[in-house]
Amino acid sequence: MLQGLVVLYVVSFVLGIHIAARVWRRRTLDGVLSLFVPGYVFYALCKYSDDVDRDKPRLLLGPCAAAALLACSAFHVASATAGENRPAVAQSNARAASEDTIDSDEGATVRRSSSNCSTSAPDKAAPASPAMRTPPSPEPATEAEPPRRATPAELQRLAEKVDFLRGRFAREAIGMRLEIPRNQHLLAGADARHADTALRGEHDAYLVGWMVAANKTLTDANLRIVRVRWRHDGLVAAESAMPDADALLEAAHTRAYASRLFGSGGSLLRYDSPPARDGATVVWSEERQLDGAKASVFDCHAVRLARKGVLEFSIAGMDAKAAKSCVDELSSLVASVQFDAGTDYPAQADNEPPAPYTLDALIAQTQ
Fold this sequence. Notes:
- The structure is a single chain.
- 40% of the residues lie in helices and 23% in strands.
- It contains eleven helices and 14 strands.
- Strands 5-6-7-12-11-10-9 form a seven-stranded antiparallel β-sheet. A five-stranded antiparallel β-sheet has the order 2-1-3-4-13, with helices on one face. A two-stranded parallel ribbon has the order 8-14.
- The two termini are 69 Å apart.
């Protein structure tokens, strides 16, 4: 098609030169104007009609036909190009809309660290993605592609692709900001969920952040992972100023189980560090016995209550030695969390939509 356009352009150009030459012989100025002024050639043909009467049909129809064919060909080329681009544009728009709704979780002041986690390479400054407009909803896995663990090669490619964040992590949709500790870096949004699924083979729709030591990446062994999760369930009511560890343990043993926090599973043996509430935050650690396992494991949790839901920090599957520092670690982390005035946990419930569970039921994970 482009070759045809070139041929038509050459034909039109040759005819134009031919007509201009005929006019030039009568008057030089008219010949020059015919070359450089669009449409002037038709005026010149009429002006000197006595000299070109017998050639007028050929001289007029030739350029007109070439121009018409040129315009028609250009129209078809433009239409074909637009048709080819339309699916790609639609796909790009859909992908962008999806990212805005689910995966754009970083705030305006973060720093990205190199995904290979080299301790000698300085972190590079980079602007964060636009904050998401709506809170994330659970993302069901498709039946065609169920969640699975990544192969070592897939995990390596993912580690090279994801961007770890340093500094401040924010989610504008829920009005939350937190300071990432200096010795750690964090994956946010889709990167966090992809990494978590690749390592566990399970999908966590509530995961918004995935934090490890700054010198570690996905391919390292024995990762101590801090998972940041957001449950947009409504205002969680607190039944008492301070949770009763004995009552919570009894409830966990006698009431129906309802999984709401990330953990190791199994049955709750005891609270290694009893739940301690400070305003809108609660921090504790628990010892759990996995089904069929001889040794117990420890999970550490911190929750930050907000007007529309709960922000959770969890470290799961630790041994007794590693569990000794987890409460202090999560206490420091949750203390850095800030919510906007309109999204923070209110002193009084007012007319806020309540969550379908209380604070005690959240901690004990019961109905």
